[in-house]
Specification:
Blueprint (H helix, E strand, L loop, with lengths): L25 H24 L5 E10 L2 E5 L11 E4 L7 E5 L6
Antiparallel strand pairs: 1-2, 1-4, 2-3
């Protein structure tokens, strides 16, 4: 999940929201953001735990020694985490990986 605080710098002249200004103090925005992300962290953990023991297709994006780094269909670049695959895998290829509890 991605979230951000709305601010005056994001207002566009001539839009309906321009007249609203920025009535929420920055500190309140930050506190709300932190509460939201804390809640989302627990939700993400529950969802990820449901995949333990399942086999997923993983697109390998990098290799470091005997660990391949990739993403499943569930993982958006720069937003979600990555999948670490033990063993030999080639960059740019799809592989199948059974999820384990490691790292949860």
């Amino acid at each position: 999940m991605t979230a951000w605080a709305r601010s005056n710098s994001r207002l566009r002249p001539g839009t309906t929201s321009e007249s609203l200004g920025d009535p929420v103090p920055a500190q309140v925005k930050q506190e709300r953001y932190e509460r939201l992300m804390e809640l989302q962290q627990g939700i993400s953990l529950q969802i990820n735990q449901a995949y333990v023991g399942k086999t997923l297709d993983i697109l390998i994006e990098g290799v470091d020694k005997d660990i391949a780094i990739g993403r499943s269909y569930r993982d958006a670049p720069e937003i979600d985490g990555v999948v670490l695959v033990e063993g030999k895998a080639k960059w740019g290829r799809w592989c199948w990986s059974r999820s384990q509890r490691d790292g949860l």
